[in-house]
Design brief:
The protein is of the alpha+beta class and 329 residues long. Helix content is 16%, strand content 33%.
């Protein structure tokens, strides 16, 4: 991506940043039973889905471990479809996970299910727009009221039709732009012309960690349940049965969430995978780490309670001292 900037030069006052997710995923679920099928696979209530409202939900294993995280978007029909063609659900999945998840879900379609599922990842690119100037940029795109959390609006940018989603702060920064692949370059150029700065993946990583956001391959893995990494906004306590529900219900009802995602302020840099100790025993593991220009060495870790509480003192690896911090930093 040309014209990228470094985090050391970012303007914290009024700048707008844009980040292109590598290997973005999108699954298309269609057919009369599309909602019922996704309803029994994931943690949130699909009945909340509306044309202008997305639903954040988690695909979990029978043990309630994270397999994928979706943003479900109600779509009138496939791109280019006629007005009478039935609509579908498009599920924005974690980067790099769409193919694996598509194969898994196809294996869970019963012979009676009237549903089809395809990997549509190649049709879209996904950009995150954020920063203090993001709302002002959206106003210049003739979106006077930026989308609220989980709200979806449609916009035309230099002839490119795209969807803009207000991201839940538990999983993202600012807004997600879902852009047809053949309009990606046009959209990116238009955003740059309006003042948005493209940032490098390593700089986005620092900002993500500062914000306390979990990500695929680090916190959003089969090692953890949604509640352990803070995805409370992706879980419904009112819907019917879904895979992993019994485990999540026990975690909530009987206070069985025994470890939590937490921030660490450190005396020196550490690496993901290093052990976190307290009182002479292991209490967790580093999941993400960075050297922040604003905060110094910081990390995310999943820690056993009560060691996840802000202010707790822990050590990492061979003896790096750290203090637990609330999130965001």
């Amino acid at each position: 991506m040309s014209g990228e900037t470094s985090i050391t030069t970012l303007n914290p006052v009024n700048q707008t940043y844009i980040f292109a997710h590598p290997n973005p995923g999108c699954l298309r679920i269609a057919g009369p039973d599309q909602r019922a099928f996704i309803q029994r696979q994931t943690t949130n209530d699909v009945d909340l889905l509306k044309p202008n409202r997305a639903v954040l939900t988690v695909l979990t294993s029978p043990a309630a471990r994270i397999l994928d995280v979706f943003y479900l978007i109600d779509t009138p029909g496939k791109p280019g479809a006629g007005p009478d063609e039935p609509g579908c659900i498009e599920a924005l999945s974690l980067p790099g996970r769409a193919g694996i998840t598509a194969r898994y879900l196809k294996g869970r379609i019963f012979f009676m299910d009237k549903v089809t599922l395809e990997d549509a990842s190649h049709e879209y690119q996904q950009l995150d727009l954020f920063g203090p100037g993001a709302d002002s940029l959206l106003e210049r795109l003739e979106i006077p009221v930026p989308p609220q959390v989980d709200e979806v609006v449609v916009a035309n940018v230099s002839g490119a039709s795209l969807r803009i989603l207000g991201l839940n702060p538990q999983v993202g920064l600012g807004y997600r732009l879902v852009v047809p692949s053949d309009q990606y370059d046009t959209t990116l150029a238009a955003m740059a012309a309006l003042g948005a700065q493209a940032i490098e993946p390593e700089d986005y990583e620092i900002l993500r960690i500062e914000a306390g956001l979990p990500i695929a391959g680090r916190e959003l893995t089969e090692d953890y349940t949604p509640l352990e990494v803070g995805l409370t906004g992706a879980i419904s306590d009112r819907k019917g049965c879904y895979t992993g529900q019994e485990v999540i219900a026990r975690q909530v009802t009987y206070d069985k969430v025994t470890r939590r995602l937490a921030g660490l302020r450190l005396e020196a840099g550490v690496r993901p995978g290093e052990s976190v100790q307290a009182e002479g025993r292991a209490v967790g593991v580093i999941t993400s780490a960075a050297i922040s220009p604003r905060h110094g060495p910081v990390a995310l870790a999943v820690l056993k309670r009560p060691h996840h509480e802000p202010g707790a003192s822990v050590t990492v690896g061979d003896g790096v001292s750290a203090q637990v911090s609330s999130l965001p930093f």
